[in-house]
From TrEMBL:
SMART domains attached to this UniProt entry: TPR (SM00028)
Signal peptide limits: none
Segments forming domain RING-type: 363-400
Keywords: Cell membrane, Cytoplasm, Cytoskeleton, Lipoprotein, Membrane, Metal-binding, Myristate, Phosphoprotein, Postsynaptic cell membrane, Receptor, Repeat, Synapse, TPR repeat, Zinc, Zinc-finger
TPR repeats: 123-156
Membrane-topology annotation of the record: Peripheral membrane protein
Family, similarity comment: Belongs to the RAPsyn family.
Keyword Phosphoprotein: yes
Protein name, entry field: 43 kDa receptor-associated protein of the synapse
InterPro entries named in the record: Postsynaptic, Postsynaptic_CS, RAPsyn, Rapsyn_myristoylation/link_N, TPR-like_helical_dom_sf, TPR_rpt, Znf_RING, Znf_RING/FYVE/PHD
GO MF entries: acetylcholine receptor binding; protein-membrane adaptor activity; zinc ion binding
Gene3D superfamilies: Tetratricopeptide repeat domain, Zinc/RING finger domain, C3HC4 (zinc finger)
């Protein structure tokens, strides 16, 4: 298969993919991969396969194609291709929750400076790196990366990247419990979709609606949360987007739990868990198990709650997700206080404070912890963040750290 034929077949696959005929598109692209003698064409078709498998949640296949793409880039001896393939390798590892590997591949990308394409890709590299730092609960570095990605998006007038960064910032602020910002950023993403997203994939709309749903639930606006989550789920089902379906099911379950409707929440958690397990989203599994634990606690089934905690703890330790561990120690503390088991209670109180120290989750001004309850926060240019009220009271000109 020559260069022109390769190009035609890639376009044919893209057309099928955009009309939701994913399996047919994959067959066309696989045929190109087997028969094409054009290395640049093969590189491009591998990019299509990586994107398609990412959206379907087939992350192990995504990783497999990313490794092949690196070999193809080396064969082409083109630094632009090499940067792009390392970014795909980083993103594959990010999806599989291999966060240290993600950071390492992102650094490799950033060291390959000097070409126009790699400069345009730096925003995506910073976003992937930020997501990995967030997975490891290294909040200051995550925020630094997201703000860097946002600067690249503004400088290159890249609205799609800006939309994705806004969703990640929504997730960031939801985790450290500044729920106003957790809502502001996905609302900004939804605005970008409305203003610029006519030709974009619907996944951008679905993504912003999902993050809005999470923030609305945290703010106790459950009807708004349900509306946004339903819209996101509808698009996820239309497009066979398994990762987003799993997240929406988790959000539905959390909404029902917030309404104390445990019987409706449990089957949603089960469905989410089975997709998260199938695609390998271990970070998502921790969230599911946290929700399940809280349901058992509502039902006063403390033994079952501890079983869920044990499974979640194993995952959180394996991933290095410190925030997950902190939340689990907090739940254990409540359970052992109820059971009157003082030794276990003290053990988890100590571990809880160790996690807070390790993540530096406290305000550098008042010394109180951050992320314990909904609080307005403000980041300074150095990416240290503080209670907004503390900054206003002290009127500081620079970072006290």
């Amino acid at each position: 298969m020559g260069q022109d034929q390769t190009k035609q077949q890639i376009e044919k696959g893209l057309h099928l993919y955009q009309s939701n005929q994913t399996e047919k598109a994959l067959r066309v692209w696989m045929r190109v991969l087997e028969k094409s003698a054009d290395p640049a064409g093969r590189f491009r078709v591998l990019g299509c396969l990586i994107t398609a498998h990412a959206e379907m949640g087939r992350y192990k296949d995504m990783l497999k194609f990313a490794v092949v793409q690196i070999d193809t880039a080396r064969e082409l001896e083109d630094p632009d291709f090499l940067t792009e393939s390392y970014l795909n390798l980083a993103r594959s590892n990010e999806k599989l929750c291999e966060f240290q590997k993600t950071i390492s591949y992102c650094k490799t990308c950033l060291n390959m400076q000097g070409t126009t394409v790699s400069l345009q890709l730096n925003g995506q590299v910073s976003l992937s790196m930020g997501n990995a730092f967030l997975g490891l609960s290294i909040f200051q570095k995550a925020l630094e990366c997201f703000e860097k990605a946002l600067r690249y998006a503004h400088n290159n007038d890249d609205k799609m990247l800006e939309c994705r960064v806004c969703c990640s910032l929504g997730n960031f602020y939801a985790q450290i419990k500044d729920y106003e910002k957790a809502l502001f950023f996905p609302c900004k993403a939804a605005e970008l979709v409305n203003d610029y997203g006519k030709g974009w994939s619907l996944k951008y709309r679905a993504m912003s609606q999902y993050h809005m749903a999470v923030a609305y639930r945290k703010l106790g606006r459950l009807a708004d949360a349900m509306d946004c989550c339903e819209e996101s789920m509808k698009i996820a089902l239309q497009h066979g987007d398994r990762p987003l379906q799993a997240l929406c099911l988790l959000c539905f379950a959390d909404i029902h739990r917030s309404r104390k409707d445990v019987q409706t929440a449990f089957p949603r958690y089960d469905s989410s868990m089975s997709i998260m397990t199938e695609i390998g989203n271990r970070l998502g599994l921790i969230q599911v198990l946290l929700g399940v634990t809280k349901c058992w606690m509502i039902q006063k089934e403390l033994g079952k709650a501890l079983e869920s905690i044990e499974k979640a703890q194993e995952l959180a330790e394996g991933l290095g997700n410190k925030l997950g561990l902190l939340k689990l120690h907090c739940l254990c503390e409540r359970i052992y206080r109820t059971k009157g088991q003082q030794r276990e209670l003290r053990d988890h109180v100590v571990k809880f404070h160790e996690c807070v120290e390790e993540m530096e989750l406290y305000c550098g001004m008042c010394g109180e912890s951050i992320g314990e309850k909904n609080n307005q926060l403000q980041a300074l240019p150095c990416s240290h963040f503080f209670h907004l009220k503390c900054l206003q009271t002290n009127g500081t000109r620079g970072c006290p750290n």
